[in-house]
Amino acid sequence: MADYIKLFEPGKIGNKTLKNRIIMSPMQTFSYDSDGTPNQKTIDYFVARARGGVGLIICPGAKPTAESRVPGTPSFYDDRFIPHFRKLADAVHEAGSLVAQQINHTGKALTYTPGKLQEEKVLEAIGPSPLRYVKTGALLREATKEDIERLVEQISEAARRVRDSGFDMVEFHAAHGYLLATFLSPFTNRRTDDYGGTPENRARFLCEIIRRTRQKVGEGFPIIIRISGSEFLPGGTVIEDVLIQAPLLIHAGATALHISAGAHENTEVQFLSYLWPDAYISHLASAVKGVVDVPVITVGKLGNPDVAERVLEERRADFIALGRSLLADPEWVNKVREGRISELRRCICCNNCWDRIFTKSREQGRLFCTVNPSLHREKTFGIKVALVKKRVLVVGGGLSGMEAARVAAMRGHSVTLYESKDTLGGQWRLASSQPGKEIYNDVLKHLEKGLYDAGVSVRLNTNVTTPLISQLAPDVVILAMGAAPHTPVIPGINGSNVVQAVDVIQGKVSVGERVVVIGGRLIGMETALFLSEQGKHVSIVTANKLGENGKKLEENIYRTLRDRLIAKGVQIFPNCPVL
Ligand SMILES: Cc1cc2nc3c(=O)[nH]c(=O)nc-3n(C[C@H](O)[C@H](O)[C@H](O)COP(=O)(O)O)c2cc1C
Ligand code: SF4
What we know:
Elements: E1 11-13, E2 16-18, E3 22-24, H1 40-51, E4 56-62, H2 82-94, E5 98-103, H3 118-124, E6 126-127, E7 141-142, H4 145-164, E8 169-174, H5 179-184, H6 199-202, H7 204-217, E9 223-228, H8 239-252, E10 256-260, H9 282-289, E11 296-299, H10 305-313, E12 319-322, H11 324-328, H12 332-337, H13 352-355, H14 360-364, E13 391-395, H15 399-410, E14 414-418, H16 426-432, H17 440-453, E15 457-459, H18 466-472, E16 476-479, H19 501-505, E17 514-518, H20 522-532, E18 537-541, E19 548-549, E20 551-552, H21 555-567, E21 571-573
Parallel strand pairs: 3-4, 3-12, 4-5, 5-8, 6-7, 8-9, 9-10, 10-11, 11-12, 13-14, 13-16, 14-15, 17-18, 18-21
Antiparallel strand pairs: 1-2, 19-20
Bound molecules: flavin mononucleotide and iron/sulfur cluster.
């Protein structure tokens, strides 16, 4: 068993001691009440992560002004919210963790808040300069000096309310292209007054907010600033800017820095998918550590505990923040501390949680996770013992068959699972064999262990036939036999030079040097990349736009694949049905 000594060393942020070096990164949930107060479902969600052992929870971006409020997200623009948030802070403390509240004026992002708030929001959808926001095409209003002074006061008042609600710290969100970040970045800040131009001038607005907040909250209350160490965007913030700006933020009164990456135009480095290496942006925190003497937090694909430990060991940061890993498994910290690594339910970096945040999460008031169905149903989602025990036969040992069998067995049924192949996992095992998706294997390992722990009896290499079912005479048969790849009906489809993508990925067939991939959604794009990386001349022909086939591919995975395909010279023919 590996020792995770660094991860479990206590550490200080200002005068607060965290019991370990693991922080829950702020993640918007859309689970708050429509006016922005936390409800019981939201409190339960944070309590589950606090019980899971995390040292500090940073709650997601709260709105500092009434005009910037977004239904389902926290609000701190009025003193009337204080008693509601006190309940949340008290509950998290009782569950054993410190708790901070992030404040985020989302600036230009307000232009995609739907509904009747829209008109009001356009007034508040301001930026440092009157530029068009690429995602909505909306022209932003240039912040006047009066706006700046008003926001310094409103944002620092929101921070004062955070302290008065019993939180241990406040974090200002100045990363990812929201309002404060747009001032820091030369990509969005084209001002010629004291708030634009040099890196120092671009940091002025944020420094004024920190100074005013410090006056209001006193010396002892920690202020964390979250910034993008680089926007990875031509013309955007680069680490050299940040190395000038970071000491100014500390001089203004900040207690710690939380180094993320990216902007609205480039979220791939914020939500690092399975296509990116672990700890991909931790070098940015490491660089910032060289110019400040306060705690520095790093974030971004640190869900492998060995990687997280190494980041601390190599002094790339003082603390690590975990986002999606704690959506996938609220017990991540306890399991790692107790050496229960095989029990970890690892985040597979598929970004489904983010993909649904603008649609299903807003409609249903909660986040969704591919590997954790109990997310936001922490108290209500339990496996209940069945009153009547049955003999259950599950046909198919793919992901859904395994999960159905596990849950049925945990409910007390006598379960046998039949799989025609010699291994469990079905299509998921195929997905795991793709380069970059090795992390998918962890889900299989987790499910397989759960299956055997629950007492399911597994029969491999066995086809289920009618006589077998008659012989076994189960009370219930669950069919989980997966899906077959779609084969379009077109001339020549049965030729010897036509193969299925799944066989290419598994190495069962070889293709020549010039390849046409039909279909341009996930499997088509991944297969084209796989082949182009082997030096083949590849084209994609797709009936729709690239990355779309009914449903759009998750935006970060889409952009990463698209850019890599282009870099590899893959020819793309969108809107071209093959006849
Ligand atoms: C659903 C979701 C919502 C997020 N909301 C916020 C937010 O409100 N404020 C913020 O600073 N970052 C937000 N993030 C970014 C995370 O804090 C974190 O930086 C990112 O997920 C990378 O960390 P990870 O690889 O550990 O997930 C969000 C991420 C996700 C997945
Ligand atoms: S939906 Fe995917 S990326 Fe999001 S937390 Fe779950 S496994 Fe991770």
